[in-house]
Write a structure and sequence with these properties.
This protein has about 210 residues and is α/β, with parallel strands linked by helices. The longest helix is centred in the C-terminal third of the chain and has 19 residues. Pfam families: ECH_1.
């Protein structure tokens, strides 16, 4: 029942956004490993104010919202990299992993919804511009981290929902496949384009097609 109610909430998150009452926002950098910051604070903590510009960028790349009232217990994670069509870079993957680590031990969380903050795109996959600048060892490390992060998502102890609005390609679709439920807008376009080149998706989430 909780997942069904959350799926209805996910439908309301498609662009143009529906209004949801009593939404609290907590920047990703306010998470401490292992638990969610007390009170789901709506502003930056004193420690977060001292973060470097890199940390501030992380806050903006993944927005964490806690719904209240009748939707209390639902956490909405919004990817926010408009300039890169929400492509997964090292910083974003690191942030998602950190948030997963916090959410999996928080007993107050009932459901997690993954969505995009950018109209017309869910996630375009890996950030190929960043990858082009990586050495081979860095690419291997990134793929390994992305795979483990998506597996963390798949293994969260609460229902997870992907609200797919726009394109979901490569790693973006793998992120959606790792969720228990996928809710797609009429604008959604999905694909693992790398398979056309006989390349196995980096996170190995093509496996989920056989259990969907």
């Amino acid at each position: 029942m909780a997942a069904t109610a959350a799926a209805k909430v996910a439908l309301r998150l498609f662009h143009p956004r529906g209004s949801l009452a009593a939404v609290a926002w907590s920047p990703a950098s306010s998470f401490s490993l292992g638990r969610v910051s007390p009170g789901c604070c709506c502003g930056l903590t004193a420690a977060a104010r001292k973060y470097s510009s890199e940390a501030k960028a992380l806050e903006e790349e993944l927005r964490v919202r806690y719904l209240d009232d009748e939707h209390k217990g639902i956490v909405v994670l919004g990817i926010n990299r408009a300039h890169a069509k929400n492509a997964l870079n090292k910083n974003l993957v690191k942030t998602i992993s950190k948030v997963m680590d916090a959410l999996k031990t928080d007993k107050k969380v009932r459901t997690v919804i993954f969505r995009s903050e950018v109209p017309g795109v869910f996630c375009a996959g890996a950030d190929l511009k960043e990858r082009a600048k990586m050495h081979a060892s860095e690419v291997s490390s990134f793929v390994s981290k992305a795979r483990s992060t998506i597996n963390e998502m798949a293994n969260l102890p609460v229902p997870t929902i992907a609200a797919i609005d726009g394109i979901a390609l490569g790693g973006g679709l793998e992120l959606a496949l790792a969720c228990d439920i996928r809710v797609a807008a009429s604008s959604a376009k999905m694909g693992l384009v790398e398979t056309k080149l006989a390349i196995i998706p980096g996170a190995g989430m093509d496996f989920f097609f056989i259990i969907m």
